[in-house]
Amino acid sequence: MSERKDSTKVVHPQPDGTSSLVVAVAMIIFALFYDKKQINVGTILYQIIYSFFVDVFTKIQHYTDIKAVNFFIMLLGIIIFSFGTGLYSAADFGRGSSYEAVTFSLAEKNGWKIKIVRMVLDILMVVIGVLLGGKFGICTVATVLLSGPVIQATVNTVKKAKIFKTINDNI
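Below the sequence we write its predicted structure tokens.
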């Protein structure tokens, strides 16, 4: 905390990675009680590493002066991230992140589509973030609209192709 000239205290927010880790712990606890099979060591390791790199990349990210290039890079990042999430989720080695553990727990236990659960959870997180003083923009909206469908399509494609079943049978 720091002191203002008028003697009121100002609380500085936690770094984004720390905040992410706090939310992840809450989600892991929920998933442990709701659907324990979604959690494994990879869930914990993923979140610690992810939270660290959120702080690292937040400090070094740069934008170009060309908005179209920034927009393309943003879309590419969302698609690559969502594809990767779908890929490791389809492997059935447990969910890598606590967010995926909650998403897949709710989807599998209730027979809901992954993309719908993900979009609803994303919207819920945005609303909570805004209520806590956060901001959102085009990247947030694009992520809400694209990540669930890309994850769902990737999981369906990988499971249909039985890629990981073949790999798991040979381990």
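Confidence is low (pLDDT under 50) at residues 1-12.
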